[in-house]
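Researcher: Please translate sequence to structure tokens.
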Amino acid sequence: MRAPLAKAVFEPETVEEAINILHEKGEDAAIIAGGTDLIISLREGVIQPANIVDILKLPLNYIKGTGKKGIRIGATTTVKDISTSKLLKNELPVLVDAGIHLGGPQTIALATIGGNICNASPCANFTNVLVAFDAVVRMKGPEGDREMMLKDFFRGPGMTELKASEVLIEIEMPAISGVYGASYVKHTLRKEMDIAIVGAAAFIAPDVDKVAKIRIALGSVGATVLLAENAQELLEGKAFSPHLAETAAKTAAEKDASYIDDVRASAAYRKKITQVAVKKAITEAWASAKGGKL
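Model: Translation complete:
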């Protein structure tokens, strides 16, 4: 690729080569894949690296089942590949849905799951869903491989635990035993091509009429995507009911989230929408787990 916004562009073909370049250039290098966020930052002068490392030639575009119904997705896998994956449509349809509503056709064709994660936006579609599924991220750098829970990967808007000389390799969703249901609710002012004012993703594993396990991930209501731990505690081990879902949603809105006023919405509006979105996500996830029956 050509990039007049940097002095030098590197196109490594192996992960090791990419790591060596990043290690040599240090903080004066930026990784690019699809570029849907980075190019804007470069043009607006938000970041001004002398070197750009294009990782699209690395063998990181894949979607694989682990053999135990877990799923691994390479960091340069595009949103389009995720949205059209037969494996994901069968095993993780909620991630496919999040991809379909991520943006317009051009963005979907170019953007990658690794970029969506490393951009560290609290409103990112994929991050919401992946945190709800206890996803793990794997990185590689000069000191070797390491991994961590995705929920611990973010330090704030635009900030992650990825070191300057590391490359994000893949994201893994652990194997799920038994039946489960999931839902992702994205509230926007427009139906399409808009970022979330509030996002809520829910994962539920039922035990007959009880909630055996639940994860509720919230986006756009904190510095990072976060788990609604108070709401989860209220639901786990309890018999599901619409009233319980309503109470848990109110708890999430009042105790788990934090709100700001900005150009897209007021804090008060976000709080009201959070309760609505969480209730909808929980209810839909339970219905999905129970075969469409409440």
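Researcher: Any highlights?
Model: The chain has three domains: 8-54, 63-173, 181-289.
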